[in-house]
């Protein structure tokens, strides 16, 4: 790689260390090095590229918009692009599911959506404390970081991260205790020292935390607990929304309706920055301008987001495809688990993982896959899980090719 990156770019860079090449172009499920070397991308921009790189259906609309001098930067002004996006969200997502949400555009990334959700929950309830879960990841700004579990990332804050209390995620105690025994007891005990929480924030499937998938019954129990104790339920669907687990929203399978939903990453469709916070109508108590940001309305992203919803969420074809492809990944992972001790298969939909008792092996598998022409990330508190997240639009042939590379890489590393 060109030394300019080491010379001028901050030491905070990470992915460029994992995949030491200079990338230049990308199409669909493939990303190409500057020298033309192709890599099958099972990383998908950490979930920001559910529809693949430079999706031609979305690109056409984006180029048309730019060519006609469509509004690019508009703060939160009313624009034609935003109107079409809101109308399409209502038509394709909210009305078919019987959901009554208003959309807030707080800033361009997932952590902006989470910050708005936490701030609003405190305003609604008048309480300060937020409940999060072990191994959660919600963002790198201070509010989001306070409800994130990873000790290394928390340590980067440089100040105490307060007004947040972690609770055990689903199966944290491997089934030894009833769900919410500890949490429910603390809420009911006036001597527990737990301040009445404003809200609970949860990922239905923890991506960065290690591909930890919660059960539908656990989510229903959590929703019921929130109602009984007057806590708002916030679902962080930044990485697992937009169809990653099958349905558009990852909580649909559980049949719950969160008070607030955080969306980003693939909501923009094309990989452009866009985030929104979905708020139940009765909870939209903001004063005008009380929470804002310079880049809270990315109009080109509205254009591609609208087209993505029209192309992929007018029927259930993508959802069925994602579930089927996810089951195929699961079959291969189960085969690997059966032939390699110290491994576990994780996840659902097209958010899958292979966990290793020896955490060093996951990183070695990632490197072996890169050497074989594939982009694979690791996840978990000790980077012990190989994280498998291809674009949802990956073809069957590409999926099989990728699964072959993963199998070869695991075998090479564990031989």
TrEMBL record:
Keyword tags: Aminotransferase, Pyridoxal phosphate, Transferase
Keyword tRNA processing attached: no
An annotated Gene Ontology molecular function: pyridoxal phosphate binding
SUPFAM superfamilies to which the protein is assigned, alphabetical: PLP-dependent transferases
GO aspect biological process, one term: ectoine biosynthetic process
Protein known as: Diaminobutyrate--2-oxoglutarate transaminase
Top-level EC class as recorded in UniProt: transferase
Xref: PANTHER family: DIAMINOBUTYRATE--2-OXOGLUTARATE AMINOTRANSFERASE, DIAMINOBUTYRATE--2-OXOGLUTARATE TRANSAMINASE
Pathway membership: Amine and polyamine biosynthesis; ectoine biosynthesis; L-ectoine from L-aspartate 4-semialdehyde: step 1/3
EC number: 2.6.1.76
Cited InterPro entries: Aminotrans_3, Aminotrans_3_PPA_site, Dat, Ectoine_EctB, PyrdxlP-dep_Trfase, PyrdxlP-dep_Trfase_major, PyrdxlP-dep_Trfase_small
Family: Belongs to the class-III pyridoxal-phosphate-dependent aminotransferase family.
Pfam families, alphabetized: Aminotran_3 (PF00202)
Named cofactor requirement(s): pyridoxal 5'-phosphate
């Amino acid at each position: 790689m060109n030394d300019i990156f080491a010379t001028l770019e901050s030491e905070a860079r990470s992915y460029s260390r994992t995949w030491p090449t200079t990338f230049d172009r990308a199409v669909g499920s493939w990303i190409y090095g500057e020298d033309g070397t192709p890599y099958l991308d099972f990383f998908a921009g950490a979930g920001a590229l559910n529809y693949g790189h430079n999706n031609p259906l979305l690109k056409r609309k984006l180029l048309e918009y730019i060519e006609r001098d469509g509004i690019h930067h508009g703060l939160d002004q009313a624009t034609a692009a935003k109107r079409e996006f809101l109308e399409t969200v209502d038509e394709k997502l909210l009305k078919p599911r019987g959901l009554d949400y208003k959309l807030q555009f707080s800033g361009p990334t997932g952590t902006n959506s989470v910050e708005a959700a936490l701030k609003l929950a405190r305003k609604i309830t008048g309480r300060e404390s937020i409940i999060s879960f072990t191994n959660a990841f919600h963002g790198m700004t201070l509010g989001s970081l306070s409800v994130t579990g990873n000790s290394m990332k928390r340590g980067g804050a440089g100040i105490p991260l307060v007004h947040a209390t972690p609770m055990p995620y689903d199966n944290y105690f491997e089934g030894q205790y009833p769900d919410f025994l500890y949490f429910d007891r603390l809420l009911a005990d006036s001597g527990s020292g737990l301040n009445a929480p404003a809200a609970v924030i949860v990922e239905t499937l923890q991506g960065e935390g290690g591909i930890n998938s919660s059960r539908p019954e656990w989510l229903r129990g959590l929703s019921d607990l929130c109602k009984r104790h007057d806590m708002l339920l916030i679902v962080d669907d930044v990485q697992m929304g937009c169809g990653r687990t099958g349905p558009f929203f990852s909580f649909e399978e559980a049949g719950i309706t969160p008070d607030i939903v955080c969306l980003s990453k693939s909501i923009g469709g094309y990989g452009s920055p866009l985030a929104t916070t979905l708020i139940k109508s009765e909870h939209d108590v903001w004063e005008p301008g009380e929470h804002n940001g310079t880049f809270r309305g990315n109009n080109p992203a509205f254009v591609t987001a609208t087209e993505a919803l029209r192309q992929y969420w007018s029927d259930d074809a993508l959802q069925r495809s994602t579930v089927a492809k996810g089951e195929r990944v699961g079959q291969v992972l189960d085969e690997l688990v059966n032939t390699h001790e110290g491994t576990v298969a994780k996840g659902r939909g097209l958010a899958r993982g292979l966990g290793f008792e020896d955490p060093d092996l996951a990183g070695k598998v990632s490197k072996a896959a890169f050497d074989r022409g594939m982009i694979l990330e690791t996840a978990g508190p000790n980077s012990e899980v190989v994280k498998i997240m291809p674009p949802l639009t990956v073809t069957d042939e590409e999926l099989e090719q990728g699964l072959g590379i993963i199998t070869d890489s695991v075998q090479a590393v564990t031989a």
